Amino acid sequence: MSQVHWTRREFLHTVFVTGVAATYGASLLQGCVKHQETTNTFIAKVADYESDIASSIIAGIRELSITPSEIKGKKILLKPNLIESGIGGIHLTTHPLVIRGAIEAFLKLGAKQVVVGEASGHTRDTMRIIEDVGLIDILSEDDIPFVDLNYDDVYTIPNLQHFSKLKTLSLPETLHEVDWIVSMPKMKTHHWAGFTLSMKNLFGILPGIIYGWPKNVLHYAGIDECILDINAAVKPHFAIVDGIVGMEGDGPIMGTPRSAGVLVMGRNLPAVDATCVRIMGYDPRKVSYLRKASEFLGPIEEPYINQHGEAIRSVLAKFSLEEKIPAHRKLL
Amino acid sequence: MKNHEILPYIEDLRKRLLAEGGFASRPGGKYRPDSNAWAIMALSITGTDTEFLKPARIRLLKDQLDDGRVTISPEHQDVIWPTSLAIMALHGSSDFDVPKSKAVTFLLNTTGEHWAKRPDEPIDHNTAIKGWPWVVNTHSWVEPTALSIIALRISGYESHQRTQEAQLMLMDRQLPKGGWNYGNTRVFGKELHPMPETTGIALASIGGQAPYQTIERSIYYLKTNIDKMQTPLSLGWSILGLSACGERPVKFNKWVIHCLKNQNRYGMYDTAMLSLMIIAFFADNGIVKLLSATSKKD
Asked: What are the residue boundaries of the structural domains of chain A, listed by start?
């Protein structure tokens, strides 16, 4: 395992402070320097879905200094991305074997219970997706409950951040019943948001019975703004990004498979997503919701992210974007 | 037909009636108006007495506002999609003609957000054709529009301009290769994937109205995929969609019972799903004709 040394961080921080303003403009810099606490992310090389994924996740959790007492006896909600199922759709949804790996990892580390939950955004029939992708067999074998968050009882809270027009957020009761919320997205491009990773994945927590299929309320209220509001309200505890095979091009549905061969983990979701964007070959400071998130949710600048496990450069996998998509043009 | 095979599931549904009136969203769960409406429909078409269902219909009206809308909960007054289901549930009893009529009026006076499409928009469908949204002040989508068409058709508004325009909207949202999804056809030049449940809902609403050749590719999509469907929403709506088009699958009863037994695999179905399967079992000619016939008996 390689670890970035303090001296390198110091060097990068100096470069950042003196050079980035000229490159990206003062307003962007202002957005990036406000959150100056450092955080840790972990990158594991995982060649394919037959690998020992549970061990990689356990290694990541340990490397990230998560203590046994933080997990022991706790109830864990895994929130994968199960947006649609499709023929040959290995790149569409979080792979069931990554979900199984996470289940095994948390149980081995002493979790009292692991549940899997999703509020699929394009179909009311989440059950069909978990059947189609083979997740139901894993859950049945391991006796793991699945909660269709689209139909969960809801509680409503004020939207305190007000980035979007939403006055309130209605969230599934299941969130009240768990100790850990783990966002488990697929590493994908997105034709409205640029990238969909652990922060955007939380759209899939909001119940469809309140927000519809698709969750058009969030589109009208502003996608980037809702990502920020939801993450600020939900405060997820951990992220595990399935980048073993991701999606490039016209994501999140119509893109093509792109193997990056990685799992990316961390407690801080903006930092995890920024790391993913760098692995995908782009500058996270150009992703508007990440730039804004760096002001109050967590860092996205390299000097403030202690990179554990593999170095980004050793797993770099350039994901293609499409020039014709406006959200992608901004990233090129 | 071995109707006795479905009787235990009807009994399961009856047991979900809450003491306060209305049906729980799942065994041991809380009240929800959409679940209540589905249960009322399923039980009314199976001949359950109206006195048993009366408290459930009265409970439905507690979430009806003065303008006629029925909302998902009192604190979500913009979430209007249960209105069409409430119309269907109230349709079976003449005691509720007034609130039903108010709900119909609300539908007729309400649309999603619509606009003349700009040339640079990346979506293909015609954004100007009016249907119904899940939530007010958002665009119209396939399921709420199809459910509203069903509600209006059984209420005698088959020829109303809104019903006709909504049918046009659904035709416009039909995927070029067949089927429907939630309501986008092509985005950034790529045709999206169909989904069985929304294809079934769309066909259930316009079957018998739309010329066969205009929906043939969607019927084909369902017919070639239905034997692989195991989940209640996809299977139930696919059966109802095909039945409305005169294509009721020969093995529908076997598939429905198998799907109901699959609760061992998936866990207990929620009330809406259980009700949908019961309705699919009995709706030989689709849900529009079944609900219409039920009201005539009443």
From this structure: 8-329
CA dihedral B263, B265, B268, B272 (to 10 degrees): -70
**Which residue reads 């046009």 in tokens?**
B168
Name the 3-class secondary structure at B160: coil
Q: Which residues of A touch B265 (CB under 8 A)?
A: 136, 140
Type of residue at B165: E
| Amino acid at site A57 | I
Contacting residues of B for A223, CB less than 8 Å apart: none
Strand, coil or helix: what is A75?
strand
Matching residue, tokens 């709706």: B283
By the 8 A CB rule, do B140 and B114 touch?
yes
Q: What is the pLDDT of residue A20?
A: 31
Nearest in space to B237 (alpha carbons), one of B203, B270, B200:
B200
As a CATH number, domain B3-292 is 1.50.10.20
Distance from chain centroid for Cα A206: 15
Q: Please report the pLDDT score of residue A8 as a whole number.
A: 35
Across the interface, of A123, A191, A212, the residue whose CB is closest to B134 is A212
Structure tokens at A272: 């995890």
By the 8 A CB rule, do B235 and B251 touch? Answer: no
Q: pLDDT tens digit string along A274-323?
A: 999 999 999 999 999 999 999 999 999 999 999 999 999 999 999 999 99
Specify the DSSP class assigned to residue B155.
T
Contact A209 B72 (CB under 8 A): yes
In chain B, which residue's Cα lies nearest the Cα of A323?
Answer: B188
Residue A88 confidence (pLDDT) above 70: no
What's the Cα-to-Cα distance from B258 to each of B194, B216, B247, rounded to whole Å?
24, 27, 20
CA dist A206 to A55, A119, A234, A236, B234, Å? 31, 6, 10, 14, 22
CA distance to A119, B104, B175, B216, per residue, from B57 (Å): 29, 16, 37, 37
Which residues of chain B are within 8 Å of residue A127 when distances are taken between CB atoms? 231-233, 266
Distance of CA A176 to the CA centre of its chain: 20
Q: Which residue of A lies nearest to B236 if distances are taken between CA atoms?
A: A125
Residue B52: other Cβ atoms inside 10 A = 13
Q: Measured between alpha carbons, how far is B149 from B107 in angstroms, rounded to an integer?
A: 10
CB contact under 8 A, B32 and A209: yes
> Complex ipTM above 0.90?
yes
pLDDT tens-digit readout, B88-138 = 999 989 999 999 999 999 999 999 999 999 999 999 999 999 999 999 999
Which among A56, A85, A98 has a CA at the least distance from the CA of A242?
A: A98
Cα-Cα-Cα-Cα torsion B178, B184, B189, B191, nearest 10 degrees, comes to -30
- For residue A141, the chain B residue with the least C-alpha distance is B265
Locate B92 and state its tokens: 């079976």
Res A110 pLDDT > 60: yes
Instruction: Give the dihedral sign, CA B250/B252/B258/B262.
Output: positive
The residue among A116, A106, A121 whose CA lies nearest residue A137 is A116
List chain B domain ranges.
3-292
Higher pLDDT, A51 or B49: A51
Q: Are A265 and A41 in contact (CB under 8 A)?
A: yes
Spans in chain B with pLDDT lower than 70: 1-2, 295-298
Cβ neighbours of B239 (radius 10 Å): 31
In DSSP terms, which residues pair with A241 in a beta bridge?
A: A264
DSSP secondary structure, B204-215, as one string = HHHTTTS-HHHH
Q: What is the pLDDT of residue A35?
A: 59
Element (H, E) at B27: none
